[in-house]
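Batch manifest, entry 17 of 40.
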Amino acid sequence: MSVTFGKSRAKQIPTSGFFPFQQVSLSRITIIDCGASRTALGTFSLNKGGLRCDHLAAETFSPAAGGEDRWLEHTTGALRVLGAKAGSRGPAVLLLPPHVVLLKHVKTPRVEADKRDRIVRFEVEQNIPYAISEVVWDTVVSGGSETGEDLLLAAAKLDVVTPLCAAARAAGFEVRRVLPSVLATRSAEELARPTNDDRLLILNVGARSASLLQVDGLRFAARSWALGAGGSAEALAARLAQETGRSLLHFQRQNGLEDPTRVVLAGGAARDPELRALLGAKLKLPVEVLQVSSTLEFAPAAAASAATFPGLTDLAGAATLQLLPGQAALNLMPAGLRRRAHLRQRRPWLVAAALLVLGSLVPPLVHYHRVTITARADLAAIEENLVPLRARDARNRAGLEKLAALKQQVTQLQSVQERRAAWLRLFADLQERFTKVEDVWLENLQTIPAVNDMPMKLVISGRMLDKTNPLAKVSPETFTRVKALLAGIVDSPFVSAVEGERFDNSRPGILKFDFVLVTDPAHPL
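Output type: structure tokens
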């Protein structure tokens, strides 16, 4: 699904193929931040329209030398410990660190919902360097114009997310949502900032990676990168300034964001005044620390550790997304786990409804039992009068069967007559659409016969010429023309769907394409 992010608007547009996940209204949530060097837990509740932090706990470990698998082992172990300490658990949100989440920006035109869904899925397949069956992905609308939308695509491997969700459930937490930490940082900054018309940079620097958010009013862009081994504040500031400059240029070209006016620093590095001074000098922008504690109310048990607690910013941001009205975010929870979680949420209501229905059926059952006895006596008398009428009915049925057979023969003859000219109309329609796109030709067309009432399919192969780049790989404009061609073919009266699109740009100046047309049963060939 894709969602629009921001305080002033929130809409949901299903794009990822997942079923829409209906969120049950909550007044209390547990946020678990699965960081690279520590796992932090915070429990938040609603109190007079604001957020209250009721409990904080953390388990710290050294950054794993063995890579992602070692981090996963430490994190699942920390979940067991935190679950034992949490006492009251219940609904929870998991935050994924940047080093296990892939972030990409994609653009889609403003078209009808079904066409947009196919375009987004195509862009996802092109931008994720894994098989789509190996990842869970979702998109969030990060900006746009009158003609198109900018989407932030987030993806994580299933073999990371699934064990984390299983470990959280084993520890007693009911996982409702899985978020990339960068969106929690975005929400925390909105919580601390009174308006959302500012232009700023948010840098969240952790032990293993750094995340950058460029915010321009309601529009934003994000990326993350890995950090090397620990070094001096000077080296870290130089690396952050270099990556920030590169990101600003990219976001300005791709997303049209304007230059920021200030920098907001979050994460463990935000506590280092030397880093803040060095970073401000290199970027030539004022640098401030992201503080959310002033916007929260703390229970006595949590107030003592709130000032120095690691990751409070992202914990509060994620709680805002889940509890406060008008918020929206993507969800990287696997679809199967989402369905089970949704069923668990509805189970008490289903049980109560079933008991109510069963109780309401007892009086009618007693009444209709008495009515049945009387009706059976009347039925026996009627049966005696029906014998001659049934014989007449049998003769009528035989005549109607003969009439139906004749009508079927007439229909078949009419269908044959109509199909004689259908192929010519189909080719004329395709020729018109190919001519409209220009520089495209059909190479092969092969039929796949219909099976078991399924419509007939046509396997089509063709090529498109890129005149502007005859000696290089085809340009993005040629891909856009192919998408326009496919979108036009779907509107053909002879076609109900286009599936199995494949593209080959290995030859200079030529884009080869293959796809399958599913014919419309209303216009048979």
